[in-house]
Design brief:
It is built from eight helices and eight strands, in the order ααβαββββαβααβααβ. With about 240 residues, it is an alpha/beta fold. The chain has a single domain, classed as 3-Layer(aba) Sandwich (Rossmann fold), CATH 3.40.50.150. The protein has an eight-stranded mixed β-sheet, with helices on both faces. Helix 4 links the parallel strand 5 and strand 6. The protein is globular, with a radius of gyration of 17 Å.
Length: about 240
């Protein structure tokens, strides 16, 4: 979860349609996973780990992010939540990389580093922004190196030592809207300057966008056609 977007949304993160829908997609992706300790890489505030502790049987979570000023510990729903700048090894059964690997030059190396730190059988859920043709000032602002196709993201995970279980797109319903806005900006202003597309919407718009995306989680596993995000689940063999 990008700290820059958290700073923009502030306390509205938990109610924002985009993050609520991504959480719904994560909960559906992990619904059939056995309860497991969570290792959340590039976790920011720990939004996703907090939700998993609160809404699933996950017993504990560790958030790792170089942006933390210091290590600290909290509890969520009576369960331990640790915040660490780095770790050397983990017994986690579930690793989250929610919009993380696009931020580094060596995406395969980053994934492989954490594959080496966990046990066999550990599951990974990785999300990344979709389609290089959607590149915009939003990506520049967030300091992305690239965007991905499903096949491209799966290839990164395989070369990092994981066995891919499933890959698909998400936010397919809003893809035409996002593509239209970004194309219009290019036609009007040319190369867009760095700037976030993340905004706080009014209640009706926020509810509508969430409702559409939440409904999409029911069929997203079959979507290898298009969306603004790629979701891949994998396991360390």
């Amino acid at each position: 979860m990008d700290l820059k977007e958290e700073h923009i949304l502030g306390d509205a993160v938990a109610s924002h349609w985009y993050y609520r829908a991504k959480l719904a997609a994560l909960l559906r992706t992990t619904a059939n996973f056995a309860p497991a300790t969570v290792l959340d890489i590039g976790a920011g505030s720990g939004f996703f780990s907090r939700a998993l502790l609160a809404h699933t049987a996950a017993p504990a979570a560790t958030c790792v992010d170089l942006g933390y000023l210091e290590d600290r510990d909290e509890t969520v729903a009576g369960k331990p939540l640790a915040f660490r700048r780095d770790i050397t090894a983990s017994d986690a059964g579930l690793v989250l990389m929610m919009d993380v690997i696009e931020h580094v030059a060596d995406d395969r190396g980053l994934v492989a580093d954490y594959v080496a730190k966990v046990d066999r059988g550990t599951r990974f859920v990785v999300t990344v922004p979709a389609f290089q043709w959607l590149w915009s000032g939003h990506d520049v602002f967030l300091e992305h190196y690239r965007r991905y196709t499903v096949a491209g993201a799966e290839a990164v995970l395989r070369t990092a030592g994981l066995t891919v279980e499933r890959g698909h797109y998400f936010y397919g319903a809003v893809l035409p809207l996002v593509a239209g806005v970004r194309l219009a900006k290019r036609l009007i202003a040319g190369e867009a300057p760095p700037g976030s597309d993340m905004k706080i919407y009014g209640g009706l718009t926020n509810a509508l966008l969430y409702g559409v995306s939440r409904a999409e989680t029911m069929v997203m596993a079959a979507n290898r056609v298009g969306g603004t995000t790629v979701v891949v689940s994998a396991v360390k063999p």
